[in-house]
Design a protein that fits this description.
The strands form three sheets. The protein has a three-stranded antiparallel sheet with strand order 1-4-5, with helices on one face. A three-stranded antiparallel sheet has the order 6-7-8. By secondary structure, the chain is mainly alpha-helical. Strand 6 and strand 7 form a beta hairpin. Helix 6 (180-191) packs across helix 10 (288-297) and helix 7 packs parallel to helix 11 (307-318). It has 15 helices and eight strands. 47% of the residues lie in helices and 7% in strands. The protein folds into three domains: 9-68, no CATH class; 76-155, Orthogonal Bundle (DNA polymerase, domain 1), CATH 1.10.150; 180-348, hpI Integrase, Chain A (Orthogonal Bundle), CATH 1.10.443.10.
Length: 366
């Protein structure tokens, strides 16, 4: 039975001397790899006996070979998963999503290190999903990155058309939303946290009144807030527009008052809205720990920073604003509002059920 191909490798070639019948090892390292066209092993002399230099030669040579494969679609069993992930990481280098992708690559490479694309099937995907060390949502995000890497290889003509297996992890939509007294309670306990209250109260106020996503809020700069036109532009000119669009909206009065007070004191010292109180030049990139602690003290279960976005959309829907207006304010699609955010208060459902079958006059006098 032939050995399974384990990828390119550095080796020292040996040969037998004809006259003395002695076996001698080569002085230099050789790169052994599989020719992408013929599938046969090939040897290339690195020209050095230094291991580090030989390894650098191997990486450069394999990079050249992969670049030369553009337009040559290979079957799945002849393409290594590691190569596909490496090419995709280089494609994403320098983009905003590259940092998040790097976390996925650590686990994907550990699992698929010596496998070919052909070994990505229902069985191996299920084994990956059965891991207990990470949350199901994390595992699904990692597999989505793997699927994106495979699609990239296909689009670059390095891999023949490949049907990626279905990921057996369902999306769990968090439909948790807060009532106004719960938002007030959360804000109260956020103000009681000495270490994080400066940034946390600011985040809660912006998130509740604007309904913007956490990333858009934390990236906010003072130049994006126009008090003369009364608008906040959550769009970052340095980032490409993605499916998760960022809105450009008018400011609600209470949010405007809060930001004016903060701006008068700090906008001339830091370009970012979120910064340390004592070290103005130090930007704050996350409020997760403080938010989690405030929610726990307020005894609010299953509440995350994204819950405030659900809360804002839910209130707008329940207050009877048109779907078109909500779509414009929140930068949401019609399908998303209907499928995720159109839930209502349980009391409204109870009142509706109690009124079914009654005449309009009875409903008015109740």
């Amino acid at each position: 039975m032939p050995r399974e191909y384990a990828g390119s490798k550095l080796v020292k070639k040996t040969r037998r001397h004809k006259s003395t019948d002695e076996i001698a090892q080569s002085k230099y390292w050789y790169l052994r790899y599989k020719d992408p066209r013929s599938g046969k092993p090939r040897y290339v002399c690195t020209g050095t006996s230094d291991t580090e230099k030989a390894e650098a030669f191997r990486e450069e040579k394999m990079r050249e070979l992969r670049a030369g494969q553009v337009g040559i679609s290979l079957p799945a069993h002849r393409v290594q998963t590691l190569q596909v992930l490496d090419d995709y990481a280089r494609h994403k280098a320098g983009k905003p999503s590259a940092v998040r992708l790097s976390y996925s690559l650590v686990h994907l490479i550990n699992f698929w290190l010596t496998t070919s694309i052909a070994e990505i099937n229902d069985e191996t995907i299920q084994i990956y999903c059965d891991q207990k060390e990470r949350a199901k949502g994390t595992l699904k995000r990692e597999l989505n990155d793997l699927r994106a890497a495979v699609k990239h290889a296909v689009s670059m003509k390095r891999l023949e058309e490949f049907k990626f297996p279905k990921i057996p992890i369902k999306n769990v939509s968090r439909k948790k939303f807060l009532k106004r007294h719960e938002v007030a309670k959360l804000l109260w306990y956020a103000r009681g946290n000495f270490r994080s209250r400066f940034q946390l109260t600011l985040y809660i106020v912006i998130a509740y009144y604007s309904g913007a996503r956490k990333a858009a809020i934390m990236d906010l700069k003072w130049e994006q807030i126009d008090f003369d036109r009364n608008t906040i532009d959550f769009r970052d000119p340095d980032l490409d527009e993605s499916n998760k669009r960022r809105p450009h909206i008018p400011m609600p009065p209470k949010l405007r008052e809060f930001l004016i007070r903060r701006s008068r004191r700090y906008s001339n010292q830091s370009s970012y809205v979120f910064h340390c109180k004592t070290k103005i030049d130090k930007r704050v990139k996350s409020i997760d720990n403080g938010f989690r602690a405030a929610a726990a003290r307020a005894e609010l279960e299953d509440v995350t920073p994204h819950t405030l976005r659900h809360t804002r959309v839910s209130e707008l829907v329940q207050e009877g604003y048109s779907i078109r207006s909500i779509m414009a304010y929140m930068a949401l699609t019609y399908q998303t509002i209907l499928s995720v955010y159109s839930h209502v208060d349980d009391k409204d459902v109870q009142d509706m059920a109690a009124n079914i079958g009654r005449s309009p006059n009875v409903r008015k006098t109740k």
